[in-house]
Amino acid sequence: MLMNRVETVLVNSPPRRWLQRYEARVLTALGGRTPGAHVAELGCGSGYGTRLILDEFGAARVDAVDLDPAMISRARHRLRRHTGRAHLARGSATDLRSAFHDVGGGQNGTYDAVFDFAIIHHIPNWREALDEVARVLKPGGRFFFDEVTATALARPTYQVLFDHPSEDRFTAGEFLHELSHHGLDVGERWQTRIGGDYLLGVATRQ
Question: Where are the domains of the chain?
Fold first, then answer.
């Protein structure tokens, strides 16, 4: 589901950049860095998270997907000095094989890690997205996630300002429980913020 205009402005704002840097530090503390890794990113937006994955997490290559062609264009501009290390494609987070077919990405067991910087809550069939994460991860690969839960989405501010799917949204507990159904083991490597509004963690593909 594409973001509305208000959310598009927000996710491209300096406060969101600061927040992503903070979240990257939390995720690193929970799951470590990814030096030399081949990584996928769900919903790359304007490419700021992609740059963090390359520069801060140390990935060698990122295959990044987004539904919005305008965001892909912004990401290409932001990542111009990373030519050859960032492959950007328009497509769905539930079908990475189609999104990355031209570079041979998105196959079973392709990636050392997958990153989700607050994208899966935008996806109506969010369980399919988790299934896709598990499919493309190598055994032992890591899923880094930062998500917005049903607790936050039920707040008036979210309902007035943003457009999100309204049916079958997940709480932090439901998201963590669902991971195990897809062979993703999170253990104790997770935390919530602001009364369960936000969930960050790192799960390992079994």
Answer: 5-205
> And the tokens for 117?
């910087």
- What architecture is the 5-205 domain classified under in CATH? 3-Layer(aba) Sandwich (3.40)
Give me the amino acid identity at 7. Answer: E
Backbone angles phi, psi at 71, to 5 degrees: -65, -40
Q: What is the pLDDT of residues 50-82, one digit of tens each?
A: 999 999 999 999 999 999 999 999 999 999 999
The CA distance from 41 to 67, in Å, is 12
| Dihedrals phi, psi of 11, to nearest 5 degrees | -70, -15
CA atoms within 13 A of residue 72's CA, in its CB half-sphere: 16
H/E run at residue 76: helix 69-78
| 3-state SS, residue 77 | helix
The packing angle between helices 14-31 and 48-55, to 10°, is 40
Helices (H), 126-206: 126-136, 150-153, 156-161, 172-181
The DSSP result for 17-74, as a single string, is HHHHHHHHHHHHHHH---TT-EEEEE--TTSHHHHHHHHTS--SEEEEEES-HHHHHH
Question: What's the whole-model pTM score?
Answer: 0.93
Q: Residue 167 carries which DSSP code?
A: S
